[in-house]
């Protein structure tokens, strides 16, 4: 007797679903691809046109104002080191990909997180999806990007956004849901509307947690640059990927150090912003 169980055709169903979306959404993906590609080109061209010494000075001054002398000096010497390594163009390309992906993820993630915080049904329904997104291997996010946008920076940007958006959704929702109930009840007692309660009580108190989500989103976007290089992203990730293909360990190490320097600068800067957002009297 044959006890074999028929294979569930998950691969066939996935292919058909992607084919259907590609066929019926091609007009939309082409429009999005053109727009995002233009944004990437304009931002990269504009930043590369700025003299590196001026860009570094402005970045060091900005991070000094945000995080103090240590963060400012870290930015100054870190970026000067990358310039000296002849990695300035790749550094700018990486910054554009990370900033564009992070900003888009925040524009999507924060409103969705607020919705999840205010709707118990939405939180229960979509929380398992967030769990799944945060446990999927990052390579999997490259698969749906290719049929829609093809090889290139747009696919890399799309995959990076999807990969990095769950933390900001989850931490925004948790930050609002963890606001002390006494404060929410006090707002209700004074006749505050739902909008007033959200913007004057819940969001200000949840801001440190939301900033932690912003930090995590940015770090995940940066961690994706090497993987995204496999589908055409430029920058330091491409330098690492090319060095792997050519067995050039030294060049790969230089580009890897560049990614670490960018990660430390962005992490310390967003941590400083989170500390500023923390209400006085809290740790």
Measured distance between first and last alpha carbons = 67 Å
Low-confidence stretches: none
**Largest sheet, strands/sense/barrel:** none
Tell how many strands the DSSP assignment holds. 0
Structural class: mainly alpha
CA radius of gyration: 22 Å
**What is the N-to-C order of secondary-structure elements (H for helix, E for strand)?**
HHHHHHHHHHHHH
Let me know the average pLDDT: 83
Looking at the structure, what is the overall shape?
Answer: globular
Share of residues in helices: over 70%
What is the number of helices?
13
Q: What proportion of the residues form beta strands (DSSP E)? A: under 5%
Core attributes:
283 residues; mainly alpha; 0% strand
Write the layout of secondary structure elements.
Layout lengths: L9 H15 L1 H24 L2 H16 L1 H16 L3 H31 L1 H16 L6 H8 L3 H25 L3 H9 L4 H30 L1 H4 L7 H11 L2 H29 L6
Helix pairs in contact: 2-5, 2-8, 3-4, 4-13, 5-6, 5-8, 5-10, 5-12, 6-8, 7-8, 8-10, 10-13, 12-13
What does this structure look like?
The chain has 283 residues and is mostly helical. It has 13 helices and no strands. The model has no long low-confidence stretch (mean pLDDT 83).
Please outline what is shown here.
The protein has 283 residues and is mostly helical.
């Amino acid at each position: 007797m044959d006890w074999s169980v028929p294979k569930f055709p998950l691969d066939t169903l996935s292919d058909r679903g992607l084919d259907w979306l590609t066929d019926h959404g091609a007009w939309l993906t082409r429009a999005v691809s053109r727009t995002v590609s233009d944004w990437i080109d304009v931002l990269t061209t504009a930043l590369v046109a700025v003299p590196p010494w001026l860009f570094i000075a402005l970045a060091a001054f900005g991070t000094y104002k945000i995080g103090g002398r240590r963060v400012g000096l870290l930015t100054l010497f870190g970026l000067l080191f990358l310039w000296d390594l002849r990695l300035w163009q790749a550094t700018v390309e990486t910054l554009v990909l990370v900033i564009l992906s992070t900003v888009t993820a925040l524009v999507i993630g924060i409103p969705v997180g607020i919705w999840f915080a205010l709707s118990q049904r939405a939180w229960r329904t979509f929380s398992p999806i967030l769990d799944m997104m945060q446990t999927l291997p990052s390579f999997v996010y490259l698969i749906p990007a290719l049929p829609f946008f093809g090889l290139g920076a747009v696919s890399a940007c799309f995959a990076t956004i999807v990969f990095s958006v769950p933390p900001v959704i989850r931490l925004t929702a948790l930050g609002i849901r963890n606001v002390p109930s006494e404060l929410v009840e006090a707002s209700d007692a004074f006749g505050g509307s739902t909008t007033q309660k959200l913007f004057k009580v819940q969001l200000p108190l949840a801001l440190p947690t939301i900033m932690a989500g912003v930090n995590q989103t940015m770090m995940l976007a940066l961690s994706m640059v090497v993987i995204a290089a496999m589908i055409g992203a430029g920058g330091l990730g491409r330098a690492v990927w090319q060095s792997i293909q050519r067995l050039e360990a030294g060049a790969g190490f230089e580009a890897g150090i560049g990614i670490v320097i960018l990660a430390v600068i962005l992490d310390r800067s967003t941590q400083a912003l989170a500390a500023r957002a923390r209400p006085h009297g809290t740790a």
